[in-house]
Design goal:
Blueprint: E1 12-18, H1 25-39, E2 43-49, H2 56-66, E3 70-75, H3 81-90, E4 96-99, H4 111-119, E5 124-129, H5 136-153, E6 165-168, H6 169-176, H7 185-192, E7 196-201, H8 215-229, H9 232-262, H10 269-302, E8 309-313
Parallel strand pairs: 1-2, 1-4, 2-3, 5-7
Antiparallel strand pairs: 3-8, 4-6, 5-6
Helix pairs in contact: 5-8, 6-7, 9-10
């Protein structure tokens, strides 16, 4: 990357959300500093403490005291990974912004590869965890979501879940202008990018601590993705409703003719109950999906702050 910055400030910003990562931060900072200095970047690191309850904030403050290029943002409570990334991006100054998790699963040593790809002319460069060190309970749902996301956004990528990504300044500014209460950053960035690339990056076992993405958070993230970037799900529901209605009418006509020919019978009562429960289940799912859209509208019209900053340093 050209070291001549287009504006006052660093030419590379690294944004890192942090939530209870005290075991990994020292190693992460040392590896980051070594990589960024070794590549000759004019850099800054923005750590966003997403309401940690361990010693993460104290450790981050020590980084800030040792190096003025380390800047800190602290939330008053936990708002989630994507809100933390938004907070870091809004305060970043670099011409290229790289996002990275604090758990050391994605190696900081791959950052120059992303920046080099940006220098080829791409607006967004995503990392693809080629040899992912996760169980099939995480990789299988991730593969399904990646295919769904590619369909919804129209940008075919292998790994939307990898946080190691690089964004050109213009894309970051466009995302900062959005005021959505919830969003999925990789998909949002792709909607503003003229050109998107994906390169293989490393992936390792978590350095320490526990994963912050349980089943509930994964489901919430997927609903945000489906309802935040496309009306395709609700159109699909409408289409399925029409099909089910036509099937129901046809089945009702069949039962009427059968009653005229065969007469009253009770043998099929359990089959009817099974069909009824299937249709009721589909209806409940459809109502829930519609409710998700209504809920998003409700959150947006309230115009409440997406997060509250408790403290900043640097």
């Amino acid at each position: 990357m050209d070291n001549a910055s287009e504006a006052a400030g660093p030419n590379l910003s690294v944004v890192i959300p942090v939530f209870n990562e005290e075991e990994n931060l020292a190693a992460l900072q040392e590896r980051l500093r070594r990589v960024l200095d070794g590549a000759g970047y004019d850099w800054e690191i923005i750590y966003v403490d997403d309401g940690s309850r361990d010693r993460s904030w104290e450790i981050l403050c020590s980084f800030n005291q040792q190096d003025h290029r380390v800047r800190l943002v602290r939330f008053n409570r936990n708002y989630g990974q994507h809100m933390a990334v938004f907070a870091g991006m809004e305060r970043s100054k670099g011409q290229v912004v790289v996002t990275l998790d604090a758990d050391l699963q994605n190696p900081p040593e791959d950052i120059p590869k992303l920046v080099d790809k940006i220098d080829e002319g791409y607006d967004v460069v995503g990392g693809w965890r080629e040899h992912r060190q996760d169980s099939w309970l995480r990789t299988l749902p991730s593969a399904i979501v990646n295919r769904l996301t590619s369909r919804v956004t129209g940008v075919d990528l292998k790994d939307y879940g990898c946080m190691l990504r690089a964004y050109r300044r213009q894309v970051v500014e466009a995302m900062n202008a959005c005021e959505e209460a919830s969003s999925f950053i990789p998909a949002l960035a792709n909607s503003f990018a003229n050109s998107v690339a994906e390169i293989p990056v490393g992936h390792a076992q978590r350095g320490g601590g526990q994963s912050k993405y349980g089943l509930y958070r994964l489901l919430k993230l997927h609903f945000d993705l489906m309802t935040g970037f496309s009306v395709l799900p609700i159109q699909f529901v409408s289409f399925m409703g029409l099909i089910i209605a036509l099937v129901g009418v046809g089945f009702g006509a069949f039962l009427f003719v059968r009653r005229l020919v065969v007469g009253p019978e009770l043998e099929g009562v359990f089959t009817l109950f099974a069909i009824l429960f299937t249709f009721v289940g589909l209806q409940i799912f459809c109502v829930g999906l519609i409710g998700e859209y209504v809920g998003r509208i409700y959150r947006e019209v309230r115009k409440r702050p997406r997060y509250l900053v408790r403290e900043m340093r640097g």
